[in-house]
Amino acid sequence: MSAVLIDGKAFAERLRARTAEHVAGLKSLHGITPGLAVVLVGEDPASAVYVRSKAKQTVEVGMNSFEHRLDAATSEADLLTLIHGLNNDPAVNGILVQLPLPEQIDSDRVLMAIAPEKDVDGFHVINAGLLATGQKSMVPCTPLGSLMLLKDALGDLTGLNAVVVGRSNIVGKPMAQLLLRESCTVTVAHSRSRNLPGICRGADILVAAVGRPEMVKGDWIKPGATVIDVGINRVPAPDKGEGKHRLVGDVEFASASQVAGAITPVPGGVGPMTIACLLANTVTATCRVNRLPEPDGLGS
Ligand code: GUN
């Protein structure tokens, strides 16, 4: 392997430590304890793991965690009632509704019901629009974390060719907006793009967020490029024993790490940054609503 490994786990730890310092300051100077409400509907095992992890880390940085676990059969009306209550609760500074939601619930309507200033996921159309027009917004956590790693690895990104593979509202589109804001030349490609390998080969920065295990191969990568692998895919690992699985990204790490200049591993790359940025966003939201100066170095 010749690529430098980008250590998202260590970066996320440092970000959480800075967040904890800001929380301590808010408490001691202003008597404010930021609060994050997480709503989980149903029992999707992966979502349950994420939600538990979010609650644990929220408490570890000194914030209040409010967990709402609803039955899989919950109606959209009942979920909207809960969100309206959280919007009006001054102890709650951030609201996150874990996705995906059961099919009887319209996710867009639910995300639109969250007060934009408490939308720490940055998924509300108001926040998406503010980001797209270069204004202050809540920024989605995974792209925000990916950008922090990129800036840490490369410094100034001005003028670099950035290719984002994936066009989701959660990662691909906001990632492209953030890279544009950094004056990159941005291409958004996806699984249906013609000549995807050729497009990727032009990238100084390659962000893979398609959700397809190991789709991006080493010979798609420009020598020396910086590769951010957002994918977290659970695949069978018969070599580890019957019924065993392992996590892989959207990039074929073994071949890509021979060519890239720097690359995020899976696990331990972008993954840990998502929750760290969620906590940072909650502090940012708390400062904004209380008209306090926004902390430096927490992203948004
Ligand atoms: N499900 C998978 N990733 C996310 C995320 O970043 N936020 C929310 N709310 N749900 C998710």
Would you give an account of this structure?
Helices cover about 40% and strands about 15% of the residues. By secondary structure, the protein is an alpha/beta fold. It has two domains: about 30-120, Leucine Dehydrogenase, chain A, domain 1 (Rossmann fold); about 140-270, Rossmann fold. A six-stranded parallel β-sheet has the order 1-11-8-7-5-6, sandwiched between helices. A three-stranded parallel β-sheet has the order 3-2-4, sandwiched between helices. Helix 6 crosses helix 7 (about 170-180) and helix 6 packs across helix 10 (about 270-290). The chain is globular, with a radius of gyration of 19 Å. It starts with a strand and ends in an 11-residue tail after the last helix. The chain binds guanine. Guanine binds near residues 99, 170 and 274. Guanine (GUN) binds next to strand 4 and helix 6.
Secondary structure topology:
Layout: E1 4-5, H1 8-30, E2 35-41, H2 45-60, E3 64-70, H3 76-87, E4 94-97, H4 107-113, H5 125-132, H6 141-154, E5 161-165, H7 172-181, E6 185-189, H8 196-201, E7 205-208, E8 226-229, E9 233-236, E10 245-248, H9 253-259, E11 262-263, H10 271-289
Parallel strand pairs: 1-11, 2-3, 2-4, 5-6, 5-7, 7-8, 8-11
Antiparallel strand pairs: 9-10
This protein binds guanine (GUN).
Residues 96-99, 121, 141-142, 170, 274 line the site of guanine (GUN).
